[in-house]
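Okay, is this right?
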Amino acid sequence: MSKVDVFRTLHKRRLPDDPLVLPGPWDAVSARVFVRAGFPALATPSAGIAACLGHEDGSTPADEMFAAVARIARAVDVPVSADVEGGYGLAPKELVERLLEAGAVGCNLEDSDGGVLKDPHEHAEWLAGVRHAAGDLLFVNARVDTFAHGDGDPERAIERAALYVAAGADCIYPIGAPPDVLPLLRSGIQGPINMFALLDGKGPSPTELGELGATRVTFGPGLLRQATAAVKEIAARLK
């Protein structure tokens, strides 16, 4: 079975209390740590990689992002999905080619640009181009930014999600959605749903998010931030 087939299978028939938990490595070392801990797949965070490379979130040059993803994918044997933000202005065919060259089996694609929501119909058409170019070689996680950059209306999020699913998206990622609206999103969105989990103990755990309707759980740059905090403590002790 190919890595992308393995990745797709990991999203299927999840029990409510057992969502797919995907740690977000920012380099080859962190990727190997997560794999050795037993995680069956990984999902790179664009903000985490940006910080690792010395860039602000959203300002990483495309070449640097794809190179970072490639280093991570080469370092491990498990499937790796890549957050490639809004696609860096690339045409679908070129975007797919670069993702596959980097060794990714999936991608996150945002539906906002510079904090402004894109026209959902135009974005759906672009996603359809990505799906056509990728065939079954990539698992497409379509981010819905209604809660991050829109009015936070769950019905608008569901409408955007329906367009993206029809365009061929494999999973929907309503980033920033409050946990209490997840059951409503679950009832209105076909297919897997990705939810973002906090690591500060203030939000629902991955298990709790699964019980509310999440299929898979990611952490953005949260793991890098915790690792950085640990390094700060070490540095303080050394000083």
In short: The beta strands are 20-21, 42-44, 80-83, 106-109, 112-113, 116-117, 139-143, 171-173, 194-196, 216-218. The CA atoms of residues 132 and 168 lie 8 Å apart.
